[in-house]
Predict the 3D structure of the following.
Amino acid sequence: MVVGRFCTFTILVYSLAPVCARCATGTTLREMMVIRFPRFAVFFILSGCAVYQAQVPLSHSTASDTLAHLTMDARAMPFPVLAAHRFDAADGLDAIEVAMLAVVNNPDLKIARGDAAISHAQAFAAGLLPDPQLALSRDLSNTGGLGSTTAFSLGLSYDINSVLLHASSHAAADAEARKTDLNLLWQEWQVISQARLLFIKLVQAGRLMSVLSDTEKLFADRVHRTHQALERGLLSSDAVTPNLTALQDVHRQVFELKKQINQNTHEMNALLGLAPDTTLHLQEGGDFAPLDEAAAQAALGDLERRRPDLLALEAGYQAQDQRYRGALLAQFPALNVGLTRARDASGVYSNGIGVTLSLPFLNRNRGNIAIEQATRQKLFDEYQQRLQTGRNEVARLLDEQRLNIRQLAETDQAIADLTSALTRSDAAFKASNIDVLVYANAHAALLVKQTEQINLQQAVLEQRVALQTLLGIELPTHHLESHKQ
């Protein structure tokens, strides 16, 4: 900033000093203004220029390992349900708070917001009219003889075609800015969806880990008791093997689940813009219920008016349509008009007007017209394809949701039956009425069904998140009895 002001002041002094000197020698004011006009022009131009401001690049990561300092602006939330929710990380994060944190702190969204700022700056630039062109020449020779003056020529011209094309180029840039904003909103929705899916996976993994831990303790106790009985000679080695095999299988499932939890935890931290070693405390969500299919079908009817990516494609088509209009206008002759003021060596002044006109005999901008027209058709086809794909995906998810709900109901009933049977097996095993293999198989069957139940619950929740994203709404639900164990 200081450098820019110093340069402007220097040019001002440099421009005014010769004028004062010439006034003392009797030179006319008109001659002084013509001769010194370039310096005055440079001064006025520079006085309105922007100046360079340095920004020190960061040499370290800005990812945080704590949530204590993070605050949420509800007005920045793209979903009404997020804007109405209070963010408080002290008691752990629920699904909505995780989504809020993802919107505010996701690194990719920060870059996307920078792209949106660039797009708006480009729209601002496209709205500015081009500057006129100034041409100045001065004779530097001294061969004019006695009584001769310094010859000069001063011209001012303007590109008329730039004015004719300004409306279409400005409209195209505005549409591109809207497209960027809508793409940013769609990316925010995608990030929210990813955050919810990871939240569901981690919460459901915690439930499954609890089931595996209980089963692991049960079989570890059975292995310990059968080993003691084997040492006392009360059981044969065949009685130890089923419990030991079941315990080893549970150990394997526990390790695999820990690996999944570790992967999902790191993905969650990266998505939320947190340090890799950040520990997140997640709250289990409330009871989930099947979605309201009537509302989903109603939302599917006006999908193109709700989905940000479809609206972004529409804005992109409008921008391309304006570029196509501009290409059609550019096929007409390019016109440049200018005025000149000149003085020859004998002191004779002359005024003139100049017109530059292109002759559209060969090019006529036909190549650009064909390109813009083909591009517009491509965007139209892409919009139709995206709309149809979205509708097909919603229909598929609704069908899968119905199947999973029915399968989940059957699994719930199977768990209830196995639990009742296992209660009787416990009593029979203690009374030595059944052998250890039958008892171990009964517990293994219950574990399989409990795992199936948790996986089905996870699938249903993930499908609901996908439907919310594809339909662009928070789906209303019917309150039914919870399927949580």
Remarks:
- The mean pLDDT is 80.
